[in-house]
Amino acid sequence: MASYVHNVSSGSEADTKYEMIDERKRRRMISNRESARRSRMRKRQHVEDLINEVSKLQKANSEIALQINQTSQLYAGIENENNILRAQVMELNDRLESLNSVLGIVEEVKGYSFDIPQMADPLLKPWQLPYPSQPLMASASMFLS
């Protein structure tokens, strides 16, 4: 059989040993509590930072949405203005065509010679102006004989 050797030390040594162990446990417990407290503080700070960031991002998002709305409204207004200008161009082209036909008739009947410009198709070359930017010089005396 195995025999166990048991050292019996005096009571004061055992008490001192247990006090040292208790002191270590107490210090370890205090250290763990402090570490947990710091961890909770870091977590709380991190959550606050995230909440602040969410708030900033929501504000930026609403500002961008407002800018998009304003830009869309501006675009719609410009598109309407463009449509009006296109209609006016078509109307002016029709009027010019009518005036050119009248000038052609006057040229045939009276023998006057006019330089009647050919109308360019603005859809073929949209970057070029279809007519030179010179005013048409017409007077009422041209049509009276």
TrEMBL record:
Residue span(s) of domain BZIP: 22-85
GO biological process, one term: positive regulation of DNA-templated transcription
Any Gene Ontology CC annotation: nucleus
InterPro entries noted in UniProt: bZIP, bZIP_plant_GBF1, bZIP_sf
Cellular compartment(s): Nucleus
Gene3D superfamilies, sorted: 1.20.5.170
Database matches in CDD domains: bZIP_plant_GBF1 (cd14702)
Coiled coil: 40-102
Claim: Metal-binding is one of the keywords in the record: no
Keyword Nucleus: yes
GO molecular function: DNA-binding transcription factor activity; protein heterodimerization activity; transcription cis-regulatory region binding
Keywords tagged on the record: Coiled coil, DNA-binding, Nucleus, Transcription, Transcription regulation
Location (main, coarse): nucleus
SMART domains: BRLZ
PANTHER family from the UniProt entry: BZIP TRANSCRIPTION FACTOR 44, BZIP TRANSCRIPTION FACTOR 53
Name of the protein: Basic-leucine zipper domain
